[in-house]
Every structure is written in C-alpha cells, then in structure tokens.
Amino acid sequence: MGACKAPISNLLLPSPPSSPPTPNQNATTRRLLLFSLPLLTTATTTNNLPLSTTGAKIASANSRIQLNSCWALAESYDPVSQAEKEASASISRRVSEAVELLEKGRELQAQGDFNEALLYFTLMVENYKDFAFSDYGRVGRALSLYEVGNREEAIAEMEDVSISLKGYPEIHAALAAALYVDKHALLLAENQFSIATMLDPHYTDLSYVKETKHWPPSLVSSLQQFITLS
Question: Where is the composition biased (Pro residues) (predicted)?
C-alpha cells in the first residue's frame, strides 16, 4: 500500500509537436512527382493503344516509303540510251535534208527548170537512197532525164521504180508514154497505163499531167501520142 506513484502533473504534460517538413523536402517531392508524370502518361497511353492499330500505322508508313522509292526509280529510269538518242537525232537530221532536196527538185520542176531539178533529184537519190521515200526522188529524176534528152536512162529508171513503187500511178503513166513512143511497145504501154488509170483516172487528162503534176513538155507530148495512138 505504500507504493510510490508518479506525479499527476507529469502525465498531463502535452507531447512536443512534430516538426514540419522543411522546404527542401517539399521541393524534392514535387520535382519527383512532376518528372514521373510524362513517363507514367506515355507508358499508360502506349499500353492502352491496341496492338493492331500500331501495326497498321507501321505498315502504312512502310508502304509510303516503298511507293516513294518506286516513283523515284521510275522518274530516274531512261529506257533510251545516249547512243540511241544520238542515232535518232542523226536520222531525223538526214530525213529533213532529204525532204528539202526533194521539195527543191519539185519546185524547180514546176518552174520548168529541169536541168536544175535533175541536179537536186540526183543529190537526193544518191545521198539518201537508204530511205524508202528516195524512190519519189527517182520519179522526179526520171522525168527530168527524159526532158534533158537522156531517154534511155530515163526509161530504165522508170522501169525500176515501177517495181519498187508499184501502184504509184504517176510512174506507171510516164512509163506507158515512154514505152509507146521510144520503144514502140504498145502492149507493155497499155499494161502500164491500165494500172495508172485504174488507180487514178486523171492521167487520161493531159492538162492534169501538165499543170498539176508538172510533167516536162516532151513527156506530155509522148503521153498525147499514146492516148491518141498517133
């Protein structure tokens, strides 16, 4: 009964208050929270995207890259080599030169200058005989030869061209006139003239060969003799 008891005043004393967090601790906690937010947001967003959507976007990007590469290759590809381009340019230039000679010869023929026309037709035929249309130069050359007096060569040229240009009515009509007058080959002349007039009936008209086709006077005269059988 004589136990010692602690004074009541000591039991009623309040406990000392806990010390508030220092400013440095608050700042550190806030920085950690802020730095962690983007990472958490990114991770959460990525995890929430469906796998199929991500794969589709990657496939679409790859397709665009491949398509752009194909277009770039197509634009840079040239199927014609430099040598082929140069050869084509050379042929085009020669064609232009040949046509110019042919047109000049025909112009002189229309003016009645058959000696000069013969020169241009001959240049065209000799220098550009690898072109198929050089046969038209041979037609002009044959007509000019006939006028300047070289009828044997003219007829030989006509006969040759009547084969290479078979179906070209002018050469058949001219050959018919020459064969009748100079070779006295009426049957051959009739055959050639039949081909010519079947393809173009205008060759029965002397004014047509004189004014439109610009035949030389000597060949017009031969055609007249053949038509009238005189």
Answer: 14-23
